[in-house]
Amino acid sequence: MAIDMTSRGRVLAAIAHREPDRVPIDQGSMHSSGITAIAYNKLKKHLGLSTGWTFVYDLVQQLAMPEPWYLDRFGVDAIDLGRAFASPEHWKPWTLPDGSLAFVPAWFHVEREGNGLVYRDAAGDIIARMPAGFTCFDQTFWPLSGPDGLDRFQPLRDHMQKVSWAALPSPPFDEPLSGNRLQEIGRAARRLREITGRAIVLPLGCNLFEWTQFLFGIENQYVYLAGEKRKFARVLDELTEIHLEFLSQLLPHVRGAVDILVMGDDLGMQRGPQISPDTYRELFLPRHKRIYSYAKQVSGAAIMLHSCGGLYPLIPSLIEAGVDILNPVQTTARNMQPERLKREFGADVTFWGGGCDTQGVLIHGTPADVREDVRRRIETFAPGGGFVWCQIHNILPDVPPENIVAMLEAALEYGA
Fold first, then answer.
1. CA-to-CA distance for 328 and 336, rounded, in angstroms?
2. What single string gives the DSSP state of each residue in 123-168?
3. Distance CA 307, CA 205 (A)
4. N or C: which end of the chain has fewer CB atoms below 10 A?
5. What is the rounded CA–CA span in Å between residue 181 and residue 177?
């Protein structure tokens, strides 16, 4: 059967483990394949571009929404549904830490604290902070921290709103999901599908492991995983029901218009998983499987899991949970060598990432080093499909713009 050579067809062919005409490319269709606003402005200056809008659509990470020129120039094949809500009238000017200009949602208000910035929620609590010298916001408030967190987790929805990731949402979730908003999202998804040939990606989250870290703090979460599994499981059950209710409200409105749903749960570290495979299978696999199978059934879309770090021992269980696509494919972590991943799992999951080493080569190498890194990775991951190219996680502010150009041009050249 012939492969559809549109960007969307290219992405869908790769997910189906068929080789398209070239390797599909992603830049910014979700929250770990993009570029920070500072790096984006530096790139525009490097290329002699002085017009357009730098929309900071991810406030926590300070990510820019790539403009049409960027998508076209670098052959980007996938876009975020949230860009349908990036209208200038809903944004206001914002000065980035390097002094360059960007735009943030009009509702976003911060306070100066010394030489840094803080964000307060409606109750006046500081829940996020950008200290002097930083270029993103860090979580500073854990609503269920302390030794009694498991005994006071209700009302869980209220506690979740005290977490910076929920309090600083990206479009289209920056307004309450009323009936009108759900219909608006559905209309926007269908309209975007009509006017673009690119695959449409909808980042959702629906985290379990990470949400318990956001709520309790990492150290408390580890203690509960070791000694309070029964109580901890009750929190996971409540989170699962909250996510399923959210999906049941949203997904019928975007069915047939969205190609990929992005779930999240950072299960790995540089040295391997944060939890053992047995713990994952006991506590998280059944609940992930329930969420992912429901989402796939209702939406008809493929399921991407964003999970940083060394996931190698967990990948078979993630595939069993219903994950179709893995991101960011952190090949610099333990046991995550590209050749090993492709050989052992390439027939069962699509690798969306792993296309350039952002921890080392991209930031410290020469443009020639970057091109060679991209070439080798495409040579490993591309055969037989099952690969969508993007760098390993976001392009950070201090990446040289000439390296960004070298990376993206190499992805187009060597992926052909």
1. 11
2. TS-EEEEE-TT-SS-EE---TT-STTGGGS--SHHHHHTTSHHHHS
3. 11
4. N
5. 5
The whole-number pLDDT of residue 90 equals 86
| Cα 375 from Cα 386, distance rounded (Å) | 17
Reported as a single tens digit per residue, the pLDDT across 372-395 is 999 999 999 999 999 999 999 999
Tokens 């992405």, located at residue: 11
Q: How far apart are CA 388 and CA 329, in angstroms?
A: 11
Q: Which stretches in the chain have pLDDT values below 70? A: 1-4
Residue 87's pLDDT is 78
Q: Which positions ≥6 away from 112 have C-beta within 8 Å?
A: 118
pTM exceeds 0.85, yes or no: yes
Query: Measuring CA to CA, which residue among 307, 413, 407 is closest to residue 358?
Result: 407
Torsion of CA 173, 177, 181, 182, to 10 degrees: 100
Computed from CA positions of residues 176, 327, 14, 74, in that sequence, does the dihedral angle turn out positive or negative? positive
Q: Count Cβ atoms below 10 Å from residue 72 Cβ, excluding itself.
A: 10
Handedness of CA 10, 253, 34, 94 (dihedral sign): positive
The answer to whether residues 126 and 119 touch, using CB atoms and an 8 Å cutoff, is: yes
| Count of positions (residues) in the chain | 416
d(CA 286, CA 340): 27
Quick one: pLDDT at residue 4? 67
Amino acid at 403: N
- What does the pLDDT read at residue 159? 97
Number of Cβ atoms within 10 Å of the Cβ of 90:
15
